[in-house]
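ok here's Oligosaccharide flippase family protein, seq below lol
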Amino acid sequence: MKQWFADGVFRTILRNCSYLLSGKLGGALFGLVALACTGRGLTPVLFGTLVLIHSYASGVGAVAKFQTWQLLVRYGAPALERGDVGEFRHVASFAFGLDILSGLFGLVGGLALIPFLASWMGIQAADLPLAMFYCTLIPTMAAGTPSGILRVFRCFNRIAGLQLVTPILRAIGGAISYFGHLGFVGFVLTWYVADLAGDLCMWWLAVRELRRQRIRGALRPGLFGPARHLDKAWEFVWTTNVAHSVWAAWGPLSNLIVGGMMGPAGAGLFKVATTFFNSATKPADLLARSFYPEIMRLDPTSGHPWQLALRSAFFSGAAALVLLLLVMLGGAPVIGVVFGKRYIAALDLLQIMTGSLIVTMACFPLESLLYMAHRQRAALVAQTGSAIGYALLLFVLIHAFGLAGAGLAYVGGVVIRALLMLVPTLDAYRRREAIPYVAVQESPA
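and the structure came out like this:
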């Protein structure tokens, strides 16, 4: 263990994770306040309707979104390590162009489809104009360039601060809507403004960081021109886009499926359970965000990045054991105090879902390792296969067991994803000597 902490890269991963964790903990507290105000200020049906509207917009954004932050880390971080600012400009330009394209495509598609899907999801005709208005957030939701820029320059402390913007505004607006009796419209506008402000602040910090680094012209959008300067950029973009779109859409689309099969009230209970579960898995998500940029700077043919993966997985799995006990023991009191007794039914669902907590947290390095090893197609197969399996399990198990079936399906989907990721990762490790790597050229003394 002492040797682990003697590794500077490992210390950097943990330090960056601590920055993000501090922001997430604060965000989680304000997020609970916001959900408490919303849950108490609305009936379960209206609360579920708000969840469905938000889930639809974020789900469409997730499907349309190119994972441009992955592109920036994959190509931009090594370019900066080599001192090649010109290549970094090409990467950022390409990423920005993709964000504009995906944002417009998602906006048009989302607005066109929601009138036909609203009744199936349980959104009433009277609430359809608000749902369409909420869809105007899709372009900012689909943008990954600012996050990628901040990660490449290791601005994790600033990202941590940004994580507080949306939950703080949502909590303040939620309290105003609750005590001011502003009703359903007030809560919808609160969530809208909070999401928009968080996204715009991310862009503002990214632009400011580029200016601080004296990198000009990086945010001139382009597609085919910049891509010609990047080896296999389009292949990487399409593969990661589909893989991550499938994974990112899990949460929103599962809310929509549950809402379509069990109504808005069922979607609201499912949202409460998944909110607590996602909060418990945040340490793994934060480790992944700090882990991926660091290993992209390392030689994949050596044992170093693979050792870092094992060490990080060990820490994350150990944290999962602690969080599992906290969720099992403290879930009922917290749900009762925050949301009210009418949402206690979500506890049974949450307890079922915690069965996948250790798997989720211990397996977080697998996807990053696949991208490092140029196995993005294997990641695509794993994400797609697990998503299809999860969707099938949702339909079958909800019919068989009701709301509890949604929790069982979630556990099954997580296990399928872990297995499909593990097999190609082990194969990549056995063949690591063949992984292409461009060494960083040291400047002459």
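fwiw Confidence is low (pLDDT under 50) at residues 439-445. kinda neat tbh
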